[in-house]
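Why should sequence recovery work at all? Because a backbone constrains its sequence more than one might expect. Tight turns favour small or flexible residues, buried strands favour hydrophobic ones, and helices have their own preferences. The token representation captures these environments compactly. In the example below, the structure is given first.
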């Protein structure tokens, strides 16, 4: 939500898509989720830019190997910085900007086939929430964006939204997000 209110163009695009798909029914349901291409791009971009777990669980090498000229002994523990990988300008054009459209040109997905995008880990022990997490986020976000418009309080502008994150086992916002919901599509009775 923070990235969407900070980027009104993206918010408008995703709401337009949702309202086009669900206006005939008057409610969001999972039957038409395959039509929500832009919403899926927004979620992918959110996981790239704000991975839930910035440092993936430690991994351990099973055998000695060499990486970029460095000898790595067996049983070496490695921490993977998913946050830095998602912001690496070597792999992402304009890496510090929230641009869901980048995934139209770059065919990467949650399955860790492209190591520059691994919000759910990689290898033999990927996150068990890899399927469940995005599905729940899609449904909740779709309902919030379909039924409500969102405005910032007290004349606040999108550029005033602070995006500082606190890091720990998981990542979270340092500053709470305050937005005002305005009913756009009432829930059917």
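From this structural description, the recovered sequence reads:
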């Amino acid at each position: 939500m923070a990235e969407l209110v900070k980027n009104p163009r993206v918010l408008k695009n995703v709401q337009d898509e949702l309202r086009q798909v669900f206006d005939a029914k008057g409610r969001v349901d999972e039957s038409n989720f395959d039509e929500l291409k832009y919403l899926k791009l927004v979620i992918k971009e959110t996981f790239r830019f704000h991975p839930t777990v910035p440092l993936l669980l430690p991994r351990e090498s099973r055998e000695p190997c060499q990486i970029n000229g460095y000898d790595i002994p067996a049983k070496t523990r490695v921490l993977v910085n998913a946050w830095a990988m998602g912001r690496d300008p070597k792999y992402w054009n304009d890496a510090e900007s929230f641009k869901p459209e980048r995934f139209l040109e770059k065919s990467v997905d949650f399955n860790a086939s492209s190591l520059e995008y691994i919000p759910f880990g990689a290898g033999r022990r990927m996150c068990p929430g890899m399927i469940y997490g995005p599905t729940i986020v899609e449904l909740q976000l779709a309902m919030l964006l379909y039924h409500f418009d969102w405005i910032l309080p007290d004349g606040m502008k999108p550029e005033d939204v602070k995006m500082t994150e606190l890091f720990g086992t998981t990542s979270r916002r340092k500053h709470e997000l305050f937005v005002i919901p305005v009913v756009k599509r009432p829930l059917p009775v």
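A few observations help interpret the result. The domain at 2-53+83-183 is CATH 1.10.630.10 (Cytochrome p450).
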